[in-house]
Amino acid sequence: MDQGRGFGGLGGPIRFTELERRIEGISRRMLTLTLRNLERDGLLLRTVYPTAPPKVEYSLTAVGAELNEYLTNLTAWAERRRGTIRAAQVAYDQARAAG
Asked: pLDDT tens, 77-94?
């Protein structure tokens, strides 16, 4: 099984409550379902510690870390090209309106 890796650039495993705090506007139920699906897809590793209450941590698998790298690069590209994309949208809309 994969060793857990940093989660989303945070440098290590992250607890459910920390994820809940960092992701604005997500319900506890939706976060739980999303994490469960990511674990099922092999992108996250879920570790439960036998404490009271149970401590649960999530970390990226090797596949999840690889995907995170691609998504980080895609996000950076989109941020760099935001003005170009917006200008293309405006030009397109103006051409269609004049049309």
From this structure: 999 999 999 999 999 999
Q: Please give the structure tokens belonging to residue 65.
A: 């870390």
Task: For residue range 23-41, list pLDDT tens digits in order.
Answer: 999 999 999 999 999 999 9
Element of type H or E holding 44: strand 44-49
CB 4 within 8 A of CB 64: no
Q: Which two tokens stand for residue 87?
A: 């200008």
Cis peptide before 53 (omega within 30 of 0): yes
Residues forming a β-bridge with 47: 57
CB distance 23 to 31 below 8 Å: yes
User: How do beta strands 14-15 and 55-60 pair?
Assistant: antiparallel
DSSP label at residue 55: E
Q: Can you name the residues that pair with 57 across neighbouring β-strands?
A: 15, 47
